[in-house]
Amino acid sequence: MAKKQKKKDEDLFDRLRELGMRKGRARKVSESLQNSSRKAPKAARRAIADLTGAAAEVQDRIKGGPQKRKKAAEKAARTRKKNAKRRSQSAKKGARTRAKAKA
Fold first, then answer.
1. Which of the listed residues 46, 56, 70, 98 has the most CB atoms within 10 Å of its CB?
2. Is pLDDT above 80 for 6?
3. What average pLDDT does the chain have?
4. Which residues of 49-59 are buried (b: 16+ CB within 10 A; e: fewer)?
5. Looking only at Cα atoms, what is the longest distance across the chain?
6. Full-model pTM
7. In this predicted model, what pLDDT tens digit does every residue of 34-55 receive, in sequence order?
C-alpha cells in the first residue's frame, strides 16, 4: 500500500513539473497531499490559488485587457473634460444673463 501511495505521489509530482510548476513547490504540494488527513492541505490550496491567478492574468493579456482598459480610461477622461467644459460654459452664460437682468 505504501508503495502504491509513493507512486501516486511521484505521478502527481511529475505531472505538476510537466505543467511548469517549480520543483520545490511541486514537491511540497504532492507531499502535503500524501501526509495530510484533510481533503485540501494548505500548500495545495495555496498552489491552486496561485495557478488560478496566473491563468487569469494570461487570459487577460491574450484578450488585450490592459490595452482595452487604457483606451476606456482615456475615453472616460475625455468625457469628463468635455462635460466639465460644458458645465463651465453654461455657468458663464447664466452669469452673463443674471448680470444683464441686474443692470
1. 46
2. no
3. 86
4. eeeeeeeeeee
5. 101
6. 0.47
7. 776 776 678 788 888 888 888 8
pLDDT at 70: 93
DSSP string, the chain: -HHHHHHHHHHHHHHHHHTT--HHHHHHHHHHHHH-SSSS-HHHHHHHHHHHHHHHHHHHHHTTHHHHHHHHHHHHHHHHHHHHHHHHHHHHHHHHHHHHHH-
44 neighbors 52 (Cβ within 8 angstroms)? no
CA nearest to 11, candidates 26, 25, 1: 26
C-alpha distances (whole Å) from 31 to each of 3, 15, 22, 23, 67 are 14, 14, 14, 12, 41
Q: Yes or no: say if 78 and 70 are a contact pair by the CB < 8 Å rule.
A: no
Give which of 38, 36, 19 is closest to 28, Cα–Cα.
Answer: 36
